[in-house]
């Protein structure tokens, strides 16, 4: 398999439907670290008085960032379900600002993977939330061939169809998993 | 009407639907609830847009977390004396089994409400309440009156 860590991460996220709706984007990925952006949207506000993004969208960002980091960190195509996720919300994010998750894989064992993650406002690096998440290892042999093929080819259409999911400002936000 | 007025009106009338309708994230994931006197069951109807894992398929763990967090906050507004939207401080979520592509339910237990912080346990299930798909514990900061 001759794809880069970043391609592996991008293609993984390209088949996660809810993440495509949120517009999650892999900014950078290597074998132990990953950066992922959640763009600000009025659709995911949790407190309309303040225009603050709901914690659930942050949870999704952190779960996806850590889970994708695990998928990239292990050899082959091993899917790792989340065992637990513990989040501290340090500060409400400011309205209108995109958020970036900085996830890292702390330790990989035969059964579990430990990760940690910080979420910062992209514009000024203010720390918004941090989390520790643990993932189970279920073995690469549990991954269906179709899914392996999606990651190797970068063609997400068997899971996602060929139509883009959402259009933002007239531009499809669907991440096709290719190089950008 | 301001969001704070919406909260106030929901608390005085007992009708929380307009409050839930005014929270964009609730509509985004399809958050619903049904009250039975002093009890409430929260519902996340089956929705393809909430899918994370396409293979099973399974609901994204983050959506399950968001659903449970929102349930915890609404539950506090319904039953506790707090005039503002509770602020989440921390959230600990254990995933017990995959959330399948079907309706999901949740209920909350407020273990303690102090003057500043409330401790809430949230349980989510699908087919069988006795076999939850996830359990969570959250602390919320409460606004002073």
What is the CA-atom radius of gyration of chain A, in angstroms? 16 Å
Helix % of chain B is 25-40%
Largest interface pair: A-B, 43 and 38 residues
The whole-number mean of residue pLDDT values of chain A reads 90
Q: How many domains of chain A, as an integer?
A: 1
| Average pLDDT rating of chain B | 95
Characterize the main sheet of chain A: 6 strands, antiparallel
- Spans of chain B with pLDDT under 50 lasting ≥5 residues? none
First-last Cα distance of chain B: 20 Å
Tell me what portion of residues of chain B adopts beta-strand conformation. 35-45%
The number of distinct β-strands of chain A equals 10
CATH architecture title of chain B:
Roll
Q: Fill in the CATH topology of chain B.
A: Thiol Ester Dehydrase, Chain A
Explain how this protein is built.
The complex is a heterodimer of chains A (180) and B (145). In chain A, α1 (5-14) crosses α3. In chain A, β3 and β4 form a beta hairpin. Helix content of chain A is 27%, strand content 32%. Chain A is globular, with a radius of gyration of 16 Å. Chain A starts with a helix and ends in an 8-residue tail after the last strand. In chain A, the strands form three sheets. Chain A has a six-stranded antiparallel sheet. Chain A has a two-stranded antiparallel ribbon with strand order 3-4. Chain A contains five helices and ten strands. By secondary structure, chain A is an alpha+beta fold. Chain A has a single domain (5-154), classed as Thiol Ester Dehydrase, Chain A (Roll), CATH 3.10.129.10. Chain B is of the alpha+beta class. Chain B has one domain: Thiol Ester Dehydrase, Chain A (Roll), CATH 3.10.129. Chain B is built from four helices and eight strands. Chain B has helices at residues 3-13, 17-21, 24-29, 61-79, and strands spanning 32-36, 39-44, 51-53, 58-59, 87-95, 104-113, 117-125, 134-141. The mean pLDDT of chain B is 95. Classes of the chains: A alpha+beta (180), B alpha+beta (145). Chain A binds chain B through residues 15-19, 21, 42-49, 53-57, 59-64, 67, 79, 81-89, 92, 143-144, 146-147, 159-160, and chain B through 2-4, 22-25, 27-29, 48-55, 60-63, 65-67, 69-70, 85, 87-95, 98. β5 (82-89) of chain A pairs antiparallel with β5 (87-95) of chain B.
């Amino acid at each position: 398999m001759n794809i880069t860590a970043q391609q592996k991460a991008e293609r993984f996220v390209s088949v996660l439907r809810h993440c495509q709706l949120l517009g999650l984007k892999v900014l950078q990925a290597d074998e132990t670290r990953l950066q992922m952006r959640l763009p600000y949207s009025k659709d995911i506000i949790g407190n309309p008085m303040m225009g603050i993004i709901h914690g659930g969208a942050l949870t999704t960002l952190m779960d996806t960032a850590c889970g994708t980091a695990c998928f990239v960190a292990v050899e082959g195509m091993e899917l790792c379900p989340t065992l637990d996720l513990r989040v501290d919300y340090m500060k409400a994010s400011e309205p209108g600002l995109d958020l970036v998750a900085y996830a890292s894989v702390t330790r990989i064992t035969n059964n579990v993977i430990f990760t940690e993650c910080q979420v910062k406002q992209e514009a000024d690096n203010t720390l918004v939330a941090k989390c520790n998440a643990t993932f189970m290892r279920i073995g690469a042999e549990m991954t269906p061939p179709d899914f392996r093929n999606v990651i190797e080819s970068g063609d997400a259409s068997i899971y996602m169809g060929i139509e883009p999911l959402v259009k933002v400002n007239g531009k499809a936000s669907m991440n096709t998993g290719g190089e950008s | 009407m301001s969001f704070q007025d919406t909260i106030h009106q929901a608390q005085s009338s007992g009708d929380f639907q307009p409050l839930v309708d005014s929270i964009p994230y609730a509509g985004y994931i399809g958050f619903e609830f049904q009250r039975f006197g002093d009890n409430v069951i929260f519902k996340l109807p089956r929705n393809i847009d909430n899918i994370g894992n396409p293979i099973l398929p399974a609901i994204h763990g983050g959506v399950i977390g968001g659903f449970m967090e929102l349930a915890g906050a609404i539950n506090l507004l319904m039953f506790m004396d707090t005039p503002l939207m509770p602020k989440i401080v921390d959230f600990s979520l254990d995933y017990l089994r995959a959330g399948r592509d079907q309706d999901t339910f949740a209920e909350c237990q407020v273990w303690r409400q102090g003057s500043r912080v409330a401790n809430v346990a949230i349980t989510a299930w699908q087919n069988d309440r006795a076999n939850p798909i996830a359990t969570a514990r959250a602390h919320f900061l409460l606004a002073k009156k």
